[in-house]
């Protein structure tokens, strides 16, 4: 079994198409999407592309917001993001809204004999939980809420991660459409798309975390033409130049 892992598309069709082209070349047997599909400049187009894959998709926190309403904004950043979300609700088709409402919190997939994969967005407990490299083991255990599988896969943080959790391996493939260089409140976005590839065969399990280029300028044109609130600000989030290193202490 060869499985592609994608997460946090955030309405970025050019990045999603670049990743799907690579997964097609790799002849994966199955794709799992870890949520947060529609928020961004192309909510309907992105969701319809995911639907066309007929793949496993779990519910992300933004998918929940579209169905159950947005939280009260607490910062200027969250206000802008919820403005964008409210616009997405207005422009997405009823079929897309119904599809997002149908998504489940978890997916359990048999990769091979004795190898199961448990997929979620943040954690089995909440779509808003963050599992990062520095999250204490005890806190991760509470987030898992008793769920176990040899391979645990989640998204939400927009950072790639491979981490041992007891007898399990946790994988975050990063974000297809919005990979963070620096998270909130700065939100610098890397100019590539991230995803993962999992292979299970003959008692062997391998995980490959990948990134690939896509046309960032095409995305910027899409954003600016979308009519989305705060479009110019959003288009400027993508950093296309390498950061300049600070000079050393000895010059």
Query: Stretches where pLDDT falls below 50 for ≥5 residues?
Result: 243-251
CATH superfamily: Metallo-dependent phosphatases
Rg over alpha carbons: 18 Å
Q: Which CATH class?
A: Alpha Beta
Account of the 3D structure:
The protein is of the alpha/beta class and 251 residues long. It has a single domain (2-235), classed as 4-Layer Sandwich (Purple Acid Phosphatase, chain A, domain 2). Helix content is 32%, strand content 23%. It is built from 8 helices and 12 strands. It has helices at residues 13-25, 43-53, 61-68, 76-91, 94-102, 137-144, 216-225, 231-235, and strands spanning 2-6, 30-33, 56-57, 107-112, 115-119, 151-153, 161-165, 168-172, 180-182, 188-189, 193-201, 204-212. The strands form 3 sheets. It has a 5-stranded mixed β-sheet with strand order 3-2-1-11-12. Strand 7 (161-165) and strand 8 form a beta hairpin. It is globular, with a radius of gyration of 18 Å. The N and C termini lie far apart (52 Å).
Layout: helices, strands, pairs:
Elements: E1 2-6, H1 13-25, E2 30-33, H2 43-53, E3 56-57, H3 61-68, H4 76-91, H5 94-102, E4 107-112, E5 115-119, H6 137-144, E6 151-153, E7 161-165, E8 168-172, E9 180-182, E10 188-189, E11 193-201, E12 204-212, H7 216-225, H8 231-235
Parallel strand pairs: 1-2, 2-3, 5-6, 6-8
Antiparallel strand pairs: 1-11, 4-5, 7-8, 9-10, 11-12
């Amino acid at each position: 079994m060869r499985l592609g892992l994608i997460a946090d598309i955030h309405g970025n069709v050019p990045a999603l198409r670049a990743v799907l082209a690579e997964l097609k070349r790799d002849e994966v047997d199955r794709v799992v999407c870890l949520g947060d599909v529609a928020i961004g400049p192309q909510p309907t187009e992105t969701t319809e592309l995911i639907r066309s894959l007929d793949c496993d998709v779990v519910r992300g926190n933004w998918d929940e917001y579209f169905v159950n309403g947005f939280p009260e904004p607490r910062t200027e950043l969250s206000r802008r993001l919820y403005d964008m979300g409210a616009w997405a609700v207005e422009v997405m088709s009823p079929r897309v809204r119904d599809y997002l409402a149908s998504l489940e919190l978890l997916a359990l997939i048999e990769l091979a004999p004795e190898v199961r994969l448990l997929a979620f967005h943040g954690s089995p407990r909440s779509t808003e939980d963050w599992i990062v490299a520095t999250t204490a083991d005890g806190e991760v255990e509470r987030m898992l809420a008793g769920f176990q599988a040899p391979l645990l896969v989640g998204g939400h943080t927009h950072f790639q991660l491979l981490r041992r959790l007891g007898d399990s391996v946790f994988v975050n493939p990063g974000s297809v459409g919005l990979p963070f260089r620096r998270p909130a409140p700065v939100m610098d976005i890397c100019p590539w798309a991230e995803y993962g590839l999992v292979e299970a065969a003959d008692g062997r399990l391998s995980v490959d975390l990948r990134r690939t280029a896509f046309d960032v300028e095409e995305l910027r044109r899409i954003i600016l033409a979308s009519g989305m609130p705060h479009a110019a600000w959003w288009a400027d989030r993508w950093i296309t130049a390498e950061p300049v290193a600070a000079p050393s202490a000895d010059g």
